[in-house]
Amino acid sequence: MVRQARYPGTAAIPPVSRLLSLLSLKLTATRRVSHVDDLLLDIGSALFAGLPVLPKKSALTDYSYRLDHDHQRRFLTALDTTMIASGLATGEEAIFDLDFHAIMHWGHDPVLEKHYVPARSQRARPVLTFFAQDTGTHNLVYANADISKATQHREVIAFCDHWKQASGHDPRMLIPGQKVTTQPVLGELDERDVKFATLRMRSPALMKQISALAPADFKTVTLDRPGRHNKPRVHESAGVKLTSYPGTVRQLIVTGLGRDAPTVIITNDHDIKTKALIGQYARRPVLHRQPQRRPRHHALRPGPGPARRLPRPPRARLPHRHPRHPPAPLPRHPRNHHHQRRCHHRPHRPARLLTRPAPGPPPSRHHRPLVGQPPAPLRIRLTTVASI
């Protein structure tokens, strides 16, 4: 795969060893390339990379900047071909889950565009990434981080072209998120005979139409999954016309999936059964909510310096009791509290040159010992016999 991707390398460090060095950092949960110094003396990591010692951070960083997008695309194509041959990905009749993920960037980079970050529930300037996951094996088969607002709706077509190059045919079905693509792009998928199933935006007109439905218009479907939300109620409509979609779609209004508002699913597959379609979308994992599969939010940072710290949360305060005595903040740590510091009220002593070893601290004695001690001797004044 490395040879097919045509990664650069040298006689001292071949490209396979460089990639295995970067992979060893991921396997040891090393968050940044600059922390490779912690593994320089690790014999196992060097043996895994096929080197006597791992390269330093400057060598790994320079190698990362030497790679371009064509290297990664060729590597993903070779990787998917190998995964299909080994059974780690579905070759024919493949169904994929598509979604975006925003990686936070703690820096001042005006090149980055503003995107919505679901983990923070706000708009920021992250790096927008795109992922494709095989629903049969739950393995990631495609990723892209070179995405802008102008081209993000075309990532679905780019993935279809990539999968056709790797497997020889288009995917059978795609399950993208609601904001992954647009209706004209869904029309292009229908022209390529690629089935899709996605969510429709609940507009005020659509919600008014859903509210006008009677309970007799719904039918109950039993899903093959555990839990209490396995018997949703479905209202199905065929030949629904959308605003920018060139044809008609099949629409399912689903209630009882554990959400407050009804779920509206649209698809161009008119042959799949209602139970299978709802179960397929209900099992769809949300990639930006899976911490074991998503990248870390602090993985991207400006320059080799330390990452920018988040602002500390406000300190907890005691309840307000009297207007003349405002509440005092609670101490964060016992060592930082002035009642816990023994040398807080001692006067400052100037530094002086010691000509002899500094005396050690006297043994500390508790003012109220927990074990018994012998009584103190009686103070008796001794006098001579003549004075008596």
Question: What secondary-structure arrangement, pairings included, does this model have?
Answer:
Layout: H1 2-5, H2 15-27, H3 43-49, H4 57-66, H5 69-86, E1 95-103, E2 115-117, E3 122-124, E4 127-134, E5 140-144, H6 155-167, E6 173-176, H7 183-191, E7 195-199, H8 204-211, E8 219-220, E9 233-241, E10 248-255, E11 263-267, H9 274-282
Parallel strand pairs: 1-6, 6-7
Antiparallel strand pairs: 1-4, 2-3, 4-5, 7-11, 8-9, 9-10, 10-11
Helix pairs in contact: 2-3, 5-6
* Spatial order of strands in the largest sheet: 5-4-1-6-7-11-10-9-8
Low-confidence stretches are: 288-310, 337-341
Number of domains: 2
CATH superfamily of the largest domain: Transposase Inhibitor Protein From Tn5, Chain A, domain 1
Please state the average pLDDT score: 78
What's the overall geometry?
extended
How many DSSP E strands? 11
What fraction strand? 15-25%
Helix content: 10-25%
CATH topology-level fold name of the largest domain: Transposase Inhibitor Protein From Tn5, Chain A, domain 1
Number of continuous helical runs: 9
> What's the gyration radius in Å?
33 Å
**What is the CATH C level class of the largest domain, in words?**
Alpha Beta
Looking at the overall shape, the CATH architecture of the largest domain is: Alpha-Beta Complex
Tell me the structural class.
alpha+beta
Order of helices and strands: HHHHHEEEEEHEHEHEEEEH
For the sheet with most strands, the description reads: 9 strands, mixed
Give the termini distance in whole angstroms: 111 Å
